[in-house]
Amino acid sequence: MKKTSLVYKLIITFTLILAATSILVAGTLSIWFKSYYFNQKKEEFNSQSTIIENAAITYLTLDSSSNLSTLKNVMDFVSKSVNADILIADQIGYTYAVSSVSHEDYKFSNLNIPEKEMNILKQGKSIVYNNIKGNDGNEYVYMTPIFKGASFSGIIVMIAPLSSINSSLIKANEVIWLTAFVAIIIGAIIVYFYAKKRLIEPIDKIKTAARRIARGEVNEEISVTSNDEIGELADSFNVMAESLKTVDENRKAFISNVSHELRSPITSIKGFISGILDGVIPRDKEGYYLKIVYDETERLSRLINDLLDISTMETGKLKLNLQEIDISNMIRQCLAKFEGIIKENGFNVDVTLEMAHQYVYADNDRLIQVITNLIDNALKYGYENGNIKINTKSKGDKVYISIYNDGPTLTKEQTVKIWDRFYKADISRTNKVSTGLGLPIVRLILSEHGEDIWVENCKDQGVVFTFTLKKV
Ligand SMILES: Nc1ncnc2c1ncn2[C@@H]1O[C@H](COP(=O)(O)OP(=O)(O)O)[C@@H](O)[C@H]1O
Ligand SMILES: [Mg+2]
User: Fold this and answer.
1) CATH number of the domain to which 101 belongs
2) pLDDT-derived band of residue 135, with 50, 70 and 90 as boundaries?
C-alpha cells in the first residue's frame, strides 16, 4: 500500500483517533480502578479493624496475660483474611503486639508517628500513612485508633506490602491496555477491509475503465451500485462513457457516409470518361455524357463545400459578419433564383410578407444560404403543382419566417433525424441533389446567430419550417 493511497491515509487517521480515545479511556479506567481498589482495601481494613479493636480493648482492660493470646489469635486470623501484617501500639505509638515475624523488629519499639498524623488518630479518624518508620513507598499502612470509652488508648496498624497490591493493579492494567490495543488493531482491520470494499475496489474499477476508454475501447460500463458519492461518480462516469460511445459511433458513421457520398459521383465520372476515352461512347453522345460528368463534379464540389461549412462551424471558426438586412427583400431575391424550377413543376407560390421592408441582424451570405436551402427543400420534397407558402411575422424582438410546402407529413422520428448529417428521410426520392447536409448546415448557421429553427407537420398534409431572426 502506497503512503499516498487513500486507504493508507484513512487507516492511519482512524487508527490515530481510535488510539487516542482508547488511551484516554484506558488511562481513566486504570486511574479509577487504582483509587477504587485502594478504597476497597481501606474499607476491608476498616471493617476488620473493629474485630481487633474489641480484642485489644479486652486485653487492655482485663487481665492482660491471659488475653494476649486471644488478641494474638484474632490478629492472626484477621491478618490472614486481609493479607496484611497487624501491629498493635499504645497511645504514644509504642508497639506491643505483632501478627507476623516479618515485622518482629517493630515489636517493643516506637513507631514514631508524627504529631500531625497522631492528632488525626486522636480525633478518632483512620488514616493511610505510608511513611511509617521512614519505610517510604514499599508498604501500604493503614492506621485506626482504639478508643476505650472516650479515651484514646492505642492504634491498630495494618501493613500490606505494596507489591501484593500492585500486582493486582498491574493485572487489571494489563487487561485494560490489552483490550485497548486489541480494539485498535481490530478497528484498523475493519477500516482496511471496509475502505477496500467501499472505496478502493470501486475506484479501481473506474480507473481501469477510464484507461480502457483512453485506449479507444468505448464500450466500457462500470457496475458500481452503491448509493453514495462513489456510486454517483460511477453513474457520471457511465454517462460520460455512453456519450463517448455516441460520439465515436457518429464519427464512424460520418466517415462512412462521406466516403459513400464521394464514391458514387467519382465512380460515375470515371465510368463516363473512360467510356469516352475507349470510344465505347459514340462521338455524338459525348456532349450528353460530359454534361452528366459536369453535373457530378458540381455535386462533388457542393458536397465538399457543405462539409467544409460544417467543419468550419463545428470548430467554431465561423466568423459572422452581422449587419442590417432587409429580410423581405432577401426572400424575394432568393425565390427569383428558383423561378425556372417553380414554373417547370407548376408550383403555386404564395408569399405573405408582414412588411415590405423588414430589417434584421444577420450575416448576409449565411442568411442567403439558409433561405436558399429551405426553399430548395420545399421545392424538392413538395408535391408537383403543390402549394408553397412563405410568410414573415414579427413577435417581440423576433421575426418568424415560415416556409410551407404541400407533401407527406414527417414521422416523429424523422422530425428529429432530419437535423442529423447525411440523414435523408425520403429514401425513394434520393436523387442526385440530395446530400442530407442542408438542414444540419441551416441549423448550425442559425445557432451561430443565437436563433432557432424547427419543423411542424400541418393538419392533413404538408410541413412547415420556421426560424427566427433578431429584429433591428
Ligand atoms: N420541406 C421538406 N419537406 C419534407 N421533407 C423534408 C423537407 N426538407 C427536408 N426534408 C427531409 O429532410 C431530409 C434532410 O434534408 P437536407 O438536410 O436539406 O438534405 P437534402 O436536401 O440534401 O436531402 C431530406 O432528405 C428530406 O427527407
Ligand atoms: Mg436540402
Assistant:
1) 3.30.450.20
2) low
Q: Give 269-290 pLDDT, tens digit per residue.
A: 999 999 999 999 999 999 999 9
CA dist., res. 257 & res. 336, Å (int): 33
Gap from CA of 458 to ligand 1 centroid (Å) = 16
Ligand sitting nearest the alpha carbon of 373? 2
Domain residues for 332?
Answer: 322-471
Q: Does residue 438's CB lie within 6 angstroms of at least one atom of ligand 1? A: yes
Q: CATH number of the domain at 329, please.
A: 3.30.565.10
Q: How many domains does the chain have?
A: 3
Is the CB of 37 inside a 6 Å radius of any atom of ligand 1? no
Closest CA to 238 of 251, 250, 220: 220
Query: Ligand 1: does its nearest atom lie under 6 Å from the Cβ of 369?
Result: no
Is residue 221 domain-resident? no
For 355, the 3-state DSSP assignment is coil
Give nearest CA residue, ligand 1 atom 18.
Answer: 438
Both 297 and 336 in one domain: the answer is no
Cα 383 to Cα 388: distance, rounded to the nearest angstrom: 9
Say if residue 52 is in the same domain as residue 159: yes
Residue among 377, 412, 454 to mutate when testing ligand 1 (max atoms within 8 A of CB): 377
Mean pLDDT of the chain: 89
Residue nearest to atom 6 of ligand 1 (CA): 381
DSSP string, 418-440: TTSTT--S-GGG--TT--S-HHH
